[in-house]
Design brief:
The chain is of the alpha/beta class and about 350 residues long. Helices cover about 30% and strands about 25% of the residues. It has helices at about 40-45, 95, 125-130, 145, 150-160, 180-190, 200-210, 220-230, 245-255, 280, 295-305, 325-335; strands at about 1-10, 10-15, 30-35, 55, 60-70, 80-85, 85, 105-110, 120-125, 130-135, 170-175, 195-200, 215, 235-240, 255-265, 285-290, 320, 340-345. Strands 3, 5, 6, 9, 10, 17 and 18 form a seven-stranded mixed sheet that branches. Strands 13-12-11-14-15-16 form a six-stranded parallel sheet, with helices on both faces. A three-stranded antiparallel sheet has the order 2-1-4. Bound molecules: zinc ion. InterPro entries: ADH-like_C, ADH-like_N, ADH_Zn_CS, ER, GroES-like_sf, NAD(P)-bd_dom_sf. Its cofactor is Zn(2+). It comes from Nocardioides marinquilinus.
Length: about 350
């Protein structure tokens, strides 16, 4: 089978590897019909040290179940399924609390040496807990939107939920990537009154407006903070959803959060040290939250509006490529020629 491997920063290849097969009784084998490249895949694309690879890539996919282990109870050959970016059993104490990313028996695709979504086949561990069957055909027009349930829509939704977005709240979203734009959509779905999108790529912020952003701020740093304050009577917003992951975005977040407010981070932090003192969080009684989104917890909740077309999160995909073109897909996303690339193996 063909699969995507990253050897080091900037070096992505599609190669022939041994076919994935069912190994454990709780596994399912899925033939991928749609996958994609994630903004978070660009972090190793920038920083992966030479000699540490190759790593299998891809953690968002939809596919058809081709084989199941003998203990798999809820799925059968031929089912179309969506896989969240984390593997989970669905039964441990954290899964029962809706925090599937902390599953006691699960893990992340990015932690598996021999599986990945940017490939033809994937062995899915803990298939009953991890996968969700979809009531559509593999060639449905809804597939791009359904694919966002793997990660980017669920992640934007998680940011908004952790941030406590509710009717009447004001929200700033930092970042105009797919997660930021879907955080805008999620904040509006949860009733936010004002949603300020901070981003400087016009085509993306225009889509953000269509997803419900009430204001767009293109400036960054102190200038951007000043602009958000002007738009909010000088106070900042109740909630800040940070969907970038670099420290300047965090600094922007505590610059625009209102006293008593909440910063919810879902951009994977590329830093380990940042201010938490009086002038950043403490002085304003600001709450800092966020983390990897348990997208599995949200799929059933988000699915109906995707299926009936009342939301179209799949609009974040602006390019579709074949599996062999994946290296160019990374390049295009890195160069910001593409917002999010769908891979059709
Ligand atoms: Zn669990």
């Amino acid at each position: 089978m063909r699969a995507t491997l990253m050897y080091e920063a900037g070096d992505v290849r599609v190669e022939t590897v041994p076919d994935s097969v069912v190994e454990q009784p709780t596994d399912a084998l899925v033939r991928v019909t749609a996958s994609c490249i994630c903004g978070s895949d660009l972090h190793p694309y920038h920083s992966m040290p030479a000699g540490s690879g190759p790593a299998r890539m891809g953690h968002e996919f939809i596919g058809v179940v081709e084989d199941v282990g003998r203990d798999v109870a809820t799925l059968a050959e031929g089912d179309l399924v969506v896989a969240p970016f984390a593997i989970s059993d669905g039964t441990c104490r954290f899964c029962r609390e809706g925090l599937h990313t902390s599953c006691e028996h699960g893990g992340f695709w990015d932690g598996l040496a021999t599986e990945g979504g940017q490939a033809e086949l994937v062995r899915v561990p803990l298939a009953d807990g991890t996968l969700v069957a979809l009531p559509v055909a593999p060639d449905s027009d809804l597939v791009p939107s359904l694919l966002t349930l793997s990660d980017v829509y669920g992640t934007g939704w998680h940011a908004a939920v952790r941030g406590g977005v509710a009717p009447g709240r004001t929200v700033t979203v930092i970042g105009d990537g797919a997660v930021g734009l879907l955080a805008v959509l999620s904040a509006r779905q949860l009733g936010a009154e004002q949603v300020i999108l901070m981003g400087r790529h016009r085509a993306r912020t225009d889509l953000g407006r269509e997803f419900g952003a009430t204001d767009v701020v293109a400036e960054r740093g102190d200038e951007g903070v000043e602009r958000v304050r002007e738009l909010t009577g000088g106070h900042g917003t109740h909630v800040v959803l940070e969907a970038v992951g670099h420290r300047p975005a965090y600094e922007q977040a505590f610059g625009v959060v209102r006293p008593g407010g909440t910063i919810s981070r879902v951009g994977v932090p590329q830093y380990s040290e940042a201010p938490v003192g009086f002038t950043s969080l403490f002085g304003g009684n600001v709450t800092l939250t966020g983390g990897p989104a348990p997208t599995r917890a949200y799929i059933e909740q988000l699915l109906p509006a995707v299926l009936d077309g009342s939301v179209q999160p799949g609009r974040v995909f602006d390019r579709t490529i074949g599996l062999d073109e994946v290296p160019d897909g990374y390049r295009a996303m890195d160069a910001r020629e593409a917002l999010k690339v769908l891979v059709s193996p």
